[in-house]
């Protein structure tokens, strides 16, 4: 049941590829409208010639397949197509981190910024820590850089890691994340 709830939360909070989809839709719509205008105007007896396809046809007839200009145009169009394909297939960076739940009909999440704030707060509350320089969220890892005024801070990294781990255990983000801590001496 928990795995089903996690899958539902991951799917609900999946990032949407709005900009690549919008650009692709606009380009395809423009090409369709121009093609429709050209075809209808040609059927009516006076082609619109919005696209100077006479020049394009002449260029294509005079250009060899091995010509650099032709290969560059083909490579550019192929690259553009691959970029749109990759944008549609690869997942983007989520804005909301789903949280484990027991009920698939109840979806919970926290923003990446909110999760970073919770981790920084937990690290900052650890004894001996004077501040948190940076928190990095990765897919399966949280990296924390904590500051301390204490020169002998042998087990401080372990204490900060335990505090952050405890906070993550209470929040239960999907997927589970390991914690790595680096402690730096605060100059001052």
From TrEMBL:
Keywords: Membrane, Transmembrane, Transmembrane helix. The keyword Transmembrane applies. It holds the Pfam family DUF6286. The keyword Transmembrane applies. InterPro entries: DUF6286. The chain crosses the membrane at residues 21-44, 69-90. Residues 79-184 form the DUF6286 domain. This is DUF6286 domain-containing protein. It comes from Actinomadura graeca. The lineage of its organism: Bacteria, Bacillati, Actinomycetota, Actinomycetes, Streptosporangiales.
